Structure formats: structure tokens, C-alpha cells
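Researcher: Batch entry, complex prediction.
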Amino acid sequence: MDKYIEMIRIRFLMMLAYRTNYYTGILIYSINIGAYYFLWNAIYGDKQEIEGLSVLQMTTYVAVAWMARAFYFNNIDREMADEIKEGKVAVELIRPYSYLGMKTMQGLGEGLFRLLFFSVPGMVIVWLIFPIAFSAEPAVWLLFLVSITLSFFINTQINLLTGITTFFLFNNTGLIRAKRVVIDLFSGLLLPISFFPVWAQSIMGYLPFQGISYIPSMIFTNGFTRVEAIEALLFQAVWVLILFLPIHLLWTLAKKQLIIQGG
Amino acid sequence: MGAIEVRDLRKEFKAYSSRSGLKGAFRDLLTRNYKVIPAVNDISFSVKQGEMVGYIGENGAGKSTTIKMLTGILEPTSGSVTVNNMNPHRERERFVQTIGVVFGQRSQLWWDIAVQESFRLLKKVYKVSDEDYNNHMELVIKTLDIGPLLDKPVRKLSLGQRMRCELAAALIHNPPLLFLDEPTIGLDVLVKLKIREFLKEINEKYNTTILLTTHDLTDIEALCERVIMLDEGQIIYDGALKSLKEKWGEGKEIQFQFLEPAELKTLEEATSGLQVKWEVDEKKQVFTAFTEDNEETISQVIAKTVMAFRIKDVNIDETSTEEIIRNIYEKGMV
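Model: C-alpha cells for the complex:
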């Protein structure tokens, strides 16, 4: 376990090594939140409520969805693709650790860094500028914390899956890009799932994506009843378990037919 | 049981070939032509603990593929590999604890952070105790002279500095077996010497087994008593470097530099009747005569050459290892 914790520390150091990324990140997220704030205000107009969400809940939803994204989002799929394409994965395989486990830890290190130095201060700034309703209930905060932890795992598992496909496709830049768009859309980051047409919602119920952004954001904005919230957490947890299966399968296959590119 | 036992090891790759033209490209979408090519073709050898072995061969002979199977990265198509009494691929995580690997063309340090942070992580990864780390790494850091580099990020190091750090990183857990895949590629003479000295030292001190692939034969000459030579996936020589030299390095080479421009043809004519083969370097400066190792012939060649041209410099050498290896590569057999 020691080595995995050390990896989180290393990731912190790497994030600190590139300060510009950090500052531009804050800027980009603020612009996004601002843009969606004005967009939703225009959509609501005089209406008090759309699909059960008030305009105040909606702004909170947008702000918290983006701030949570800072935590669960990572680029380990692209990193894996690069490592596989350049043959660096050879170096990873001569170390006594699980490659996928280490990648997950790197993602977690990155996520924790952003959560502490980016989301929390960012949230304070956003709260000062826009009207946002924070829940006073500790239970909501607790449910939210459990929920974003699970979103991190679902998102990371999907990233690992995408990354592993590089072993078979050799160049999967397109797939990685497509995956990112799919996640931003179907996870509920851009539009709450309850705003989708009913038939789309029912399809979405069979996919893991809403476990990434919609569920934690809805919990935070009090958009769910307590029972709904617990059910949503179960939905996330089940998907975390299910996703282990294809990862394990693909990884075993990948190791068997591994070719180290570039000699 | 030796450090490395390899029996009938084989690794095949599928080599895809594209059909030509637009029509061919469309057909490739459906079915692709491929050939199965054995990169390593049923090789067997064993290495004893404490041996330093040079593993040589042309580009594409299968050296790196073998190393990747020995280190557990690739799974063999057939045959058996036992390294440190383990199956490298099946017991990967436990196995890699007992080996150190340096890939000359790939860094295993983290690019953006200071060298010592990489070391610290590796120390945790290999579960090295503080005591062992201090005892062992103090010597490594001193011998490789990397103390002043430890707080610099890897991307700011020169190749030579980085390579010394890579070597230190591979030795953090003091492994009984070390794989070096072209460790001296692109390094200057001083760094090369330092690395060789260091390898000798750890071999003596810890009885570390070292398997080395390189294209720089001076590395092999300085370090290894035994060489394994690979050609097209097969072992064509496995034995002492000395007997390879004795068997193949029978002749002598005499190098001439002349004061005036010379021609190969004139030289050949001047020494006709003698057992001699002439060659000239690309700059047309150094002319080399290959002869048998016989004082009479050598004297005659020199005498006749001196008569033909005025001489600036003469050198008599044994056939170099490089020459021997080149001959073997060209003929493809021993």
C-alpha cells in the first residue's frame, strides 16, 4: 500500500511542476461555470421550475458538476495510450506493482490535488459571484462525498478500458476523443439526465455514465429524496463492480498479445 | 540451478503486409495478409550466478525480444524460461523484485520530478528498508558520482548524467541479476568508462549476474568473458570471447597513411603474389592490408608498399573484435 500512497505524492509533485496548467485550469472552469450560469438563466426566464429543479438548484448543479469534474476527471487513458504507443509500458511492466492499480493511483493523486487546491477555492470564488445554495445537512455532504468517490472509480475504470484498447488498436486518439464527448454529454455534466426525453432516460438507466456526474450533483443540490439518493449510490457501486470484469478480461488478453512498439 | 535457464525459447510475431493500391487498401479492411515471423527461433542457453554475459547481434536479430521475455514483459510463444527459479511472465510481480533492468533508449525515471523523488518512490515500490538503502545507495551514488544531480529534475540532465541515474535506479533493491539493454548508447568515453568500472565493481562485490546487449564491442571486451551471438533469431555462437578471437582473429592488419595520393589498384599490383587484401577508409586516407599472421609476409608487404609510396604512418594490429564480428555477421555463421 505504501507504494501506492507514494505514487499519489509523486503525482502532487508533478502537478506542482506545471503551475501554468493549474492557473489556466482555474480560468477555464470559471468561464465554463459562468457561461452555463447565464445560459440556464436565459432558459429559465420567468419559469420557477423545470423538471423539478429551481433556477437556484440549477446554478448550484452546474457549479458543483464542474467542480466535481475537477476531481473525477483525469487523462490516464491518454497517458496509457502514449505509454503503449511509445513502448514505455515495458518499463512499467518490470516493476513489482500492478500497472492498472498504479494508473488509478496516479489519477487519484491528480484528483485529490485538484479537489484541494482547485475545487475548494474555486467553489468559494463561484459562491461569491453567483447565487448558490449549499446544503446545511451533514448527511447530504456525506452522501455527496461517497458519491463523488464512486464517480471517480467509474470514470477511471472507463478510462482504463479506453486506455487498454490501445494494445489492440495501436492508435485510438479518435476513440479517446469520442469517449470524452460521450461522458460529458451522457454523464449529465452539460444537461441533467432528467431533462432528456423519457426514452433516452430509460436507455441511460442501463449505462454507467450518469453515475459520473448526474448522481453526485443531484445529491448535492438536494434534487433527490433520501431514498432516491441511496438507490443512486447503489447504482454507482454496482457499476464499479461490473466494470472490473471487462477490464480484467481485456488486460489479460492485452498482456498475452502485447507487442512493445519501437524495439 | 543457474540464474537464467532458457530451453527452446521461441517468440513469433505476426507481420502484416499491406496490399498495394486503392483496391488493395479496401481489401485490407476486410482481411489482411500476414506472415508469422519468428523473432526468436528456438534458442537455449543458461547463465550462472555471477557471470557477465554479452548478448550481441545485428539490429533485428532478436536481442531485445529475448530480453523482454527474460524480464517477463513478453510471453514466449513456446519453450521455457526460468530466471531466478521463477517463470518471469506468470509470476511477474514477485519475479521483477529480483531483477534490475536498464533500457538505454527508455527512461525509467519520472521526467518532471527530481531524481531523488524517483529514487524514493522506487525504494517504496521495491520495499527497501532505510538501512539497506543507505548502506547500498551511498556506495552507488558515490561511485557513479551522481550526488550533485539528485535534486535536479530528470528533464534537465544530460544523457550521460541521466544514464548514470538510470543505472542507480535499477540497483536500488540490489538485485542479484541485472539486464542492460544498450546501456552505453550515445554516451561519451568518460561516462562509458565510469559505467564499466561500476559494473565490474558491483559484480565483484555482490556477485551480480549481468546480461548485457550492446553494439559497442569495447563494452563487451571490457566486461564480458562470455558472449552469446544471435543472428536471425538463432544463436550462432555461445562461448568465450577469447576463443572467438583465436578462431577468427588469425590475421594481422597493417594500416598505412601515405604522403601522396594512392590508389588501391596500384597497391594491389605492388603487392601481387603475396597473401594480402587491401581496403581503404571512406576518406581515402587510411589503407589497410589484411594479411596472415606471419612475420615474413608482413615484412614483405611493408617493404613493397614502401617502395611504391612515401609513408606518413604505419600501424600493425591484430584483427579487432569489431572486424571479427563484422565478418561473422556478413557470413552469418561461426
